[in-house]
């Protein structure tokens, strides 16, 4: 049976059809080709021909041409459009021409690096030349490291390893740095927020080291579709970039359906489970013999979906092995086997976390089911992109969960299909981040006084570091003067010095991750359920003195939510847009927060199924915030308790919807309403960044305030609940009977705030 057949059968069901909010066909695209660039090495041409490639897609040819002529560039094309050729071709060409040439590839995860290596090995093997390609990461045996440093033509690594394992030891990497022609940064969109701000500084260090060894590599970036790829690439690299986004790869037509599970309890706003609905829809495709991928949000969801599908299709497909699970944490061998099964068609279905949304090669599938919104529109498109043949029809079905972002998107498909609204934001000059890397930079090479480090002036910062004894000025340069390796203590993924380290007690006390203290009180208190890469962990013990959280993996059907008693002091207002109806501001704030109690909340039904106290010291956070202020004349229209509920509702929904515009995780933002804020003397809602100093999100919120508030209003207005539910402003229990109505009114006013 074909995709069309299964679609017809699904669409013949009245109920299914009724719940669709989008039925859209992405038209087929014709391939556009270009010939190999002039002067392409014969061996490379032959290797490509041996793999059936006799000409390039236009975007591949354009990228290769630019890179070979020494231009820095960023390539933005969809999943499976042959993006890797855009960097492999110029790099291999450069090496065939000059065997001394070197290249450095950066991928955000180890798994992706491994995958790339396999691809490179294939091409190099075909050419029968002596080009050595290696991964260099935490798993690389010490015995192999020296050979890689000396002989690796292409070194494939991740930003963390570049930061702690390569740059501080650059003297051992002379061959690489002195001959570095290309730096490849794939999955560029992954480098946003704190991680991206760190990488920008790691690259500043890299450019210094390259300059020292007299090399000036060309940078090739690749990104999924976001609103500002060129801007993000330029902010990250500090270079001026050429954008390549005219995709020449072909694709068959793709039917895109948005499905919102029916409401089963209108008052509480509860919908039928998105997990079960996804399972039902996936079953239709799999029964029809259509090769299908199902994306779940968490490991728990993936495992539920997988076991249900395996059970219900056991008779149909024979061995259950033909439907597989896939997630981070699987062994590489296991993953390779599943990927291979997907490519050769022996695996008919796969249920995966977002681990498969990244560039891993699994060929082209016929159908993709997205169980819940993966958090960013770029990710959603990548997941949808997993379905789609070069020829023939494909289908993608997005099944919305009841969380607010899901409900917003499923009800506003035009937002999803329209011009990409998501901005990848970074702030390389965040003081904490800048200071950490400035120290690492002086350790690596003395910093001539007056030499810039990125764009920010650093003279003052260096003098502060001098007072701390970290650096000293000798002659015309700043030198590192402390003992330790400064890069060691800095994690790129979250971090500042006093992070809470998360230890999995079941896996030989291995470290799962780190979290800053301010967030830790909310997410890592004892009995919290901590979610990391789709896995759930129970926090058994939090040792606040030692800054260690001891966790173990669990499978539970609830999450935890901590109550914070917050007070906010505005230290400086950067900008304001006053208006008669509602004013918006952004600036620098000091937050004091005390975690008081936590609740256990069941997935899907959002029932409160238990609670407990949290006893931790009060935390302070110096950061940036966006706030909206309701002028007294407007506030007078509402009774105080109604206003209180309305503000809470606005805080809840705006902090969720903001993630849509900022491309961030809900955990990156906090929100706090005050019925009479000391700073404004009026009802005020603060949305603040949880990372000390912020990374530019509140400034962007300020700029896009009217759009964000309009979107929040749209979400609440469209929600079928009577007086609030977890899908919009929060349950009536939290915001009161009037909460939803007042929140709607306030958001309506907010949408009137003039644009910048
Ligand atoms: Zn609602």
Question: Could you describe the 3D structure shown?
Answer:
It is built from 26 helices and 32 strands. 37% of the residues lie in helices and 25% in strands. The N and C termini lie far apart (53 Å). It is globular, with a radius of gyration of 26 Å. The protein has four domains: 190 residues, P-loop containing nucleotide triphosphate hydrolases (Rossmann fold); 212 residues, Rossmann fold, CATH 3.40.50.300; 50 residues; 170 residues, no CATH class. The structure holds zinc ion. The site of zinc ion has 7 residues, from loops.
Mean pLDDT: 90
Q: Note the main sheet.
A: 7 strands, mixed
| Count of helical stretches | 26
Spatial extent as radius of gyration? 26 Å
Helix content class: 25-40%
CATH topology of the largest domain: Rossmann fold
Q: What structural class is derived from the secondary structure elements?
A: alpha/beta
Unreliable stretches (pLDDT < 50, length at least 5) are none
List the ligand species: zinc ion
The CATH superfamily of the largest domain bears the name P-loop containing nucleotide triphosphate hydrolases
* Strand order, sheet with most strands: 1-11-18-17-14-16-15
User: What is the CATH architecture annotation of the largest domain?
Assistant: 3-Layer(aba) Sandwich
The quaternary state of the protein chains shown equals single chain
Shape: globular
- Cα distance, first to last residue? 53 Å
């Amino acid at each position: 049976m074909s995709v069309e057949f299964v679609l017809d059968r699904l669409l013949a069901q009245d109920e299914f059809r009724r719940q669709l909010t989008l039925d859209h066909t992405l038209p087929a695209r014709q391939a556009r080709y270009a010939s190999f660039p002039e002067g392409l090495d014969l061996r490379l041409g032959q290797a490509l021909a041996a793999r059936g490639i006799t000409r390039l897609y236009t975007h591949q040819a354009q990228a290769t041409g630019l890179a070979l002529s020494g231009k820095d560039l960023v390539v933005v094309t969809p999943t499976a459009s042959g993006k890797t050729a855009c960097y492999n071709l110029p790099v291999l060409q450069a090496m065939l021409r000059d065997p001394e040439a070197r290249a450095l590839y950066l991928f955000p995860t180890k798994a992706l690096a491994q995958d790339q290596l396999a691809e490179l090995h294939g091409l190099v093997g075909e050419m029968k030349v002596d080009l050595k390609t290696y991964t260099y990461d935490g798993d690389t045996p010490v015995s192999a490291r020296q050979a890689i440093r000396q002989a690796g033509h292409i070194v494939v690594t991740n930003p963390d390893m570049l930061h702690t394992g390569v740059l501080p030891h650059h003297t051992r990497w002379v061959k690489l740095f002195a001959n570095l022609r290309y730096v490849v940064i794939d999955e560029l969109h992954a480098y946003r927020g704190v991680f991206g701000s760190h990488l920008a500084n790691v690259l500043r260090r890299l450019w210094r080291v390259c300059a020292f060894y007299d090399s000036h590599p060309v940078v090739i970036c690749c990104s999924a579709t976001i609103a500002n790829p060129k801007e993000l690439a330029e902010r990250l690299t500090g270079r001026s970039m050429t954008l390549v986004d005219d995709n020449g790869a072909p694709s068959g037509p793709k039917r895109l359906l948005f499905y919102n599970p029916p409401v089963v309890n209108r008052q509480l706003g509860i919908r039928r489970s998105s997990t079960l609905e996804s399972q039902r829809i996936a079953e239709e495709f799999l029964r029809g013999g259509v090769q299908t991928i199902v994306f779940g949000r968490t490991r728990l969801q993936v495992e539920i979906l997988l076991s249900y599908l395996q059970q219900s299709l056991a008779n149909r497909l024979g061995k259950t092995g033909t439907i597989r699970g896939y997630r981070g944490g699987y062994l590489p061998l296991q993953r390779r086997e599943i990927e291979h099964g997907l490519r050769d068609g022996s695996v008919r279905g796969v249920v995966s976390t977002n681990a498969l949304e990244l560039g891993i090669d699994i060929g082209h599938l016929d159908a993709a089911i997205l169980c819940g919104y993966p958090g960013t529109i770029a990710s959603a498109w990548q997941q949808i992109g997993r379905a789609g043949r070069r020829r023939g029809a494909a289908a993608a079905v997005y099944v919305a969960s009841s969380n607010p972002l899901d409900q917003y998107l499923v009800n506003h498909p035009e937002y999803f299909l329209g011009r990409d609204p998501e901005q990848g934001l970074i702030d390389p000059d965040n003081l904490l981040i800048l200071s950490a890397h400035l120290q690492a930079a002086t350790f690596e090479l003395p910093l001539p006084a007056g030499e810039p480090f990125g764009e920010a002036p650093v003279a003052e910062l260096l003098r502060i570091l001098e007072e701390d004894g970290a650096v000293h000025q000798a002659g015309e340069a700043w030198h590192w003067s402390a003992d330790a390796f400064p890069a060691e203590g800095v994690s790129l993924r979250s971090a500042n010095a006093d992070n809470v380290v998360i230890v999995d007690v079941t896996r030989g006390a291995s470290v799962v991750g780190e979290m800053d203290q301010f967030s830790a009180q909310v997410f890592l208190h004892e009995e919290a359920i901590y979610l990391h890469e789709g896995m759930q962990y129970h926090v058994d013990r939090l040792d606040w003195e030692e800054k260690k959280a001891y966790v173990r993996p669990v499978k539970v059907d609830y999450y935890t939510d901590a109550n914070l008693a917050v007070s906010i002091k505005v230290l400086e207002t950067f900008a304001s847009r006053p208006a008669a109806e509602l004013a918006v501001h952004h600036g620098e704030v000091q937050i004091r927060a005390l975690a008081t109690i936590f609740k256990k909340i069941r997935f899907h039904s959002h029932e409160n199924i238990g609670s407990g106290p949290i006893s931790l010291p009060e935390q302070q956070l110096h950061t940036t915030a966006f706030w909206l202020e309701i002028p007294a004349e407007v506030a007078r229209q509402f009774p105080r308790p109604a206003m209180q509920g309305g503000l809470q509702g606005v805080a809840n929904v705006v902090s969720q919807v903001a993630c849509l515009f900022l491309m961030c995780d809900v955990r990156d933002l906090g929100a706090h309403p005050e019925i009479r804020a000391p700073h404004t003397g009026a009802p005020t809602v603060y949305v603040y960044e949880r990372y000390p100093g912020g990374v530019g999100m509140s400034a962007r919120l300020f700029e896009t305030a009217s759009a964000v508030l309009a979107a929040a209003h749209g979400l609440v207005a469209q929600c079928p609940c009577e007086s609030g539910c977890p899908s919009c402003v929060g349950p009536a229990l939290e915001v009161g009977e009037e909460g939803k109505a007042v929140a709607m009114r306030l958001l309506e006013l907010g949408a009137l705030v003039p644009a910048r």
